[in-house]
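Risk register update: the risk of archive-format incompatibility is retired. Evidence:
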Amino acid sequence: MIRAHTLRTQRMERRRKRNKPGALSLTSLMDIFTILVFFLLVNSSQVEVLPNPRALSLPESVAVQGPRQNLLLMVTRDDILVNNEPVMRVEDASNTSGNVLAPLKSRLMQEPLLEVVGGAAGAVSRGEINIMADKETPYQLVKKIMATCTDARFAKISLAVAHREAGSGS
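Archived output:
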């Protein structure tokens, strides 16, 4: 008696059903999505961008180096803010005689002192600060703010600018 379906033909039919041309391989699809998720997670953590409030119009520059995450001092048309907390009015700061703005200095002095790496033994500073000011802000006010930051022992002061291509000039 001849069996209609031998073991070999049964095995071949099972393999054919498993490998249908229209069937998706979920294992390969899951591998691709896993790699995509890891790629997006790794690359999204490297982006460091300063907040860009609509109230500010930054000056343009061909700066190459990107901003680092530090203390942010923002000068709007009306207020001076440290980490989005109002410290004093721009009008009051402009009318202040002298180079050091007392309310701003008292707020900046609240930041912790850090040991200077590679400096003299016992040398300390408050690290770095980013100043983001409207391009219409008077230079005298920016000068007072920078002098106040220096007086509060910030080692490095950076000014935020909008990136402009090197060839376009205005």
